[in-house]
Write a structure and sequence with these properties.
Largest sheet: 6 strands, mixed
Helix content: 25-40%
Bound molecules: adenosine-5'-diphosphate, magnesium ion
Strand order of the largest sheet: 6-7-8-3-9-10
CATH class of the largest domain: Alpha Beta
Number of domains: 2
CATH superfamily of the largest domain: P-loop containing nucleotide triphosphate hydrolases
Length: 262
Amino acid sequence: MTDQPNVGRVGIDDVVIRFPSKQAETTALDRTSLTLEPGTFTALIGPSGCGKSTLMNAIAGFVAPSEGRLSLDGAPITGPSNDVGVIFQQYALFPWFTALGNVRFGLKQMGLPKAEEIGRARAALEEVGLSAHADKFPQQLSGGMKQRVAIARTFVVGPKVLLMDEPFGALDAQTRVSMHSLLMGVWQKHRATVLFVTHDVDEALLLADDVRVMSQAPGRMIRHYALTQQRPRAFSRSGPELLEIREEILGLLRPEDDLIAT
Ligand SMILES: Nc1ncnc2c1ncn2[C@@H]1O[C@H](COP(=O)(O)OP(=O)(O)O)[C@@H](O)[C@H]1O
Ligand SMILES: [Mg+2]
C-alpha cells in the first residue's frame, strides 16, 4: 500500500467561466464548486459542450475563471505549473523525439545530470511497459503505446495533479481495457490527484472514486457518486450498485441524445 498523500488538493470555489464574443457571450461553465481530495480519482462525465474541457483548462492554468477561485493546496492557480500534468485525447508527443526523448523532455526543466535524466526516463518507460520501444518515434507506435508514453512523460516529473481529457477516447475497446489497468497501476503507485474526463459511463465507474455528472451547457455539477467498490472492478463482480448507478447516469445523459437527433 502506498501512503496517502497530503498534497494535491484542488479547490474549485464558485467558478464561472465565460467566453466573450462579438455576438453573445458563452457561459462555458456555470457556478461550480468542488474539491478534489489529495490522491483521489474523480471522473467527470457530461454531454458534449457542457464545459468539461474548460474546467480542466482552468485547473491547468490555461484559462482564467471569470468569477470564483481555483487553488492547489490553498495557493491560487495563476498559470500552468509542473505540479499539474495534462494528458489529452490527441497524443501530443513530439514527433521528432523518440519515446525516450519525449519522456526526457518532461524532465528537462529539472536540470538533472544527463545520466540521471536518462535513468529516470527509462524507468518511467519500463513502468508503462515500453522498455523495448524506447528508441522508436511516435509514428512507429500504436495509439495505446503513444498514450503510454504520454502517461510516462507526465508521471515522471511527479505532478501533484493529473488532468486527463478523454485520454482513451481514440483507442479501440480492447486497448482501452489494457490502458485502464495500466493507469490504475501507475496511479496507485504515484497517487496523484486525478481528474479524468470521459464520455464513457463504464470507464468512469470502473476507474473512479468519485463520479461527477454535469448538466447540459452551461455546465453545472448535477450528481455525485462516491464509489467504494474494490479495484479492479468489473460489472460482473462488483455488485448490483454499480449497474444501478450506470442506469441512472445513462438516464441523466439521455436527453442530450434527443437534442442531437432533432
Ligand atoms: N476558447 C474558447 N473560446 C470560446 N468559446 C469556447 C472556448 N472554449 C470552449 N468554448 C465553448 O465553451 C463551451 C464548453 O466547451 P468545452 O469545455 O470544450 O465542452 P466539453 O469539453 O464538455 O465538450 C462550448 O460552448 C464551447 O464552444
Ligand atoms: Mg472536451
